[in-house]
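Worked example 3 (structure in, sequence out).
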């Protein structure tokens, strides 16, 4: 089970206990996860029964990791993940889902999650997986890791379309920035994303503020620098 995780080995012993929030609309599932985590020295500081609670509790407590179910009332797990990581990039999200659909898993990763695990792997794998996520490891199956690699192979050499896993920009703001990198005007961006020009201007304003720049040109340059840092030249790979 844990052998199928594409994550490097992590020391089980930490100086400080991991602080975790468990989000799942099934009370029994929450209890099972909580019990396993606590038995392994992980502190469950709160539980959420829906996506809205997951967001509110995460922003209030600022846990190390959130174990996030996908299908929940009010706000789904992917939307909650996007909101949490957009507001607090330092919080790791590990999605725990009843589905093994890799496309759904990739959606979760694009939303900012550090990992995606199917519930079929069993809760016994969770403590090590969560510690790995906190240590900066990607907690995914080997099959999903291959899907990510296949996606990277399709990326243009200039890195266009690549987005850092940890970013203050939301997915929509990255879509706007991608189009700005292609030299598109406000009207073009609005037409492509089916938004009003005023909404696009609002997104651009947020992008400039979050990147700490004062013009669209500087935002494009900042995006290119971030993408350049993600691309490792072949001659540097040992």
């Amino acid at each position: 089970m844990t052998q199928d995780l594409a994550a490097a080995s992590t020391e089980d012993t930490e100086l400080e206990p991991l602080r975790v929030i468990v989000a799942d609309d099934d009370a029994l599932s929450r209890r099972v996860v909580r019990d396993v985590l606590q038995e392994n020295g992980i502190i469950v500081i709160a539980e959420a029964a829906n996506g809205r609670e997951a967001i509110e509790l995460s922003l209030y407590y600022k846990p190390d990791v959130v174990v996030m179910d996908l299908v929940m009332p009010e706000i789904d797990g992917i939307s909650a993940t996007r909101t949490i990581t957009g507001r607090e990039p330092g919080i790791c999200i590990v999605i725990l889902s009843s589905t093994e659909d890799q496309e759904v898993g990739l959606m979760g990763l694009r939303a900012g999650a550090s990992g995606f695990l199917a519930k079929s792997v069993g809760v016994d794998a969770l403590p090590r997986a969560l510690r790995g996520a906190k240590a900066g490891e990607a907690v995914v199956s080997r099959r999903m890791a291959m899907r990510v690699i296949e996606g990277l192979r399709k990326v243009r050499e200039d890195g266009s379309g690549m987005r850092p896993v940890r970013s203050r920009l939301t997915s929509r703001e990255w879509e706007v920035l991608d189009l700005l990198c292609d030299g598109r005007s406000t009207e073009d961006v609005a037409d492509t994303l089916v938004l009003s020009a005023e909404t696009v201007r609002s997104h651009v304003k947020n992008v400039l503020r979050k990147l700490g720049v004062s013009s669209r040109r500087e935002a494009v340059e900042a995006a290119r620098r971030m993408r350049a840092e993600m691309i490792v030249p072949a001659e540097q790979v040992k």
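Notes: The longest strand covers residues 43-48. The longest helix spans residues 197-211.
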